[in-house]
Amino acid sequence: MNIAASITPALSVRGEFPAIAGWHYLDSAATAQKPQAVIDAIMRAYDTDYATVHRGVYERSAVMTHSYESARAAVAGFIGAASPNEIVFTRNATEAINLVAQCLPKDGRNRVLVSQLEHHSNIVPWQLAGYELDIVPLTSDGLIDLDAAEAMISDQHRVVAFAHVSNVLGSILDAKRAADIAHSKGALLLLDGCQAAPRIPVNVAAIGCDFYALSAHKLYGPTGIGALWGRADLLDSMPPYQGGGAMIDSVTFERSTFAPPPQRFEAGTPHIVGAVSFHAAIDWINAIGLPAIHAHEVVLVRECRDALSRINSVRLFGPEDSAGIVSFAVEGVHPHDIGTILDDEGVAIRAGHHCAQPLMAALGVPATARASFAAFSDSSDIEALVNGIDKVLRIFGS
Ligand SMILES: Cc1ncc(COP(=O)(O)O)c(C=O)c1O
What we know:
- The protein has 398 residues and is of the alpha/beta class.
- The protein is built from 14 helices and 15 strands.
- Helix 2 packs antiparallel against helix 10 and helix 12 crosses helix 14.
C-alpha cells in the first residue's frame, strides 16, 4: 500500500531529528525524539555555559540562573499560567502528581475522583497519600464520562484527577466541563497533561483547573525534568515536599522556615541543563505552533485508523478523533509479538498495558499495541506500520 504517495504531510520537520533517520518511530507517547535545536541547547549548556544556579556569586552563575528562571517563565507562558512563580520544576509529571498528593492539605476530605483510563501515575500517588478513589467510567468511544462524573462528585472529594489526553486511547477530555464539575462541590481539578501538552494548545486559566502536570521528555525536551503548575494560593498553602538546600528561608537545629513557592518545592540542586533545554523545546514547539502540530497529528490519526480498519483482524480502540494516539489489537496475536515483528521491519511501537492496567481490564484485553505520532511523523511511518502488520498476519496465518 502506498499511502505516502497520496498524502502530503502538513509538517516537514523530520530532518531536524537525527535519531530517527531510517527508522519509523511510532512511540512518541512514551517519549518524543529530540530536534537538533534541543540537542544543541543541551550541548551548549554543558559545554560553554555551565554553572550552578541561585547560589553563585560569579557572573557565569548569574547568567545560568537567568537562563534557569527564563525556562520557568517559558513553561508558564506555554500553558497560560498567571506567573512563573506558579511553575514548580519536578523530575517529571509523576513527581508533580506525587507532590500534590503528598502536600495538599486534605481539609477533611479523603476522596479523589479519577477515571478508568488513568495512567498509574495518576492512581498510585493518591493511594500512597491515603485517599479513597472513586472511578469514573468511560463512554463507549473511550472518553471520560463526564455525565457520570457529575453524578458521582460529592463534598467528600478533595480532588478530581483526570488525564487531559489518554495515553492509550488518545481521547481528549472536555477539561473546562471537568473543572466546573469539580468546583461544583468544592473539589480541585488536577489535570495530568503528559499527553495533552505536546498535542493540543493548553491554557490553564481558560480551562479553570487548579493543578497541571507535565513531562519535558514528551514535549521534545530532555528526560529528568517536568513541571507542576498550581494556582498560587494553593501552592502557598502547601508544606514542602522534600527538605534540603534551596527550599529554606532559615535553618537552625531547633527549627527551619521555608522559602515561598516555587523554591519551597525545589529542594537541592535542580536539573539546570534540563530546564534550559526544556526552554529550547518550548521555543521549538512555539515556532511551529501547537495548532499546526495538532492538525498534523489529526491527519495522521485519520490516515492510520483508515488503513488499519481495512484489515479485518484488527480491532481499534479509542475515539475516531483521538489526539495523535492509536491503540489496536490483532486477533489471535499478542501485542508483544506484533511489536517484535514490527521492530524487525524498522517500526517502533509500544506494546503492553501502557501503565494503565485498570483501563486494560475495562477494555477486556491484557495489552494493546499502540502507534503514537508527533510533529516529525509522516505517512511513510503509517505505510511501514501497515506493511509490518501484513507481515504479522502472514506469519500468524491470520
Ligand atoms: C497520561 C500519562 N500520565 C503520566 C505519565 C508519566 O509520565 P512520566 O513517566 O514522564 O512521569 C505518562 C507517561 O507515559 C502518561 O502518558
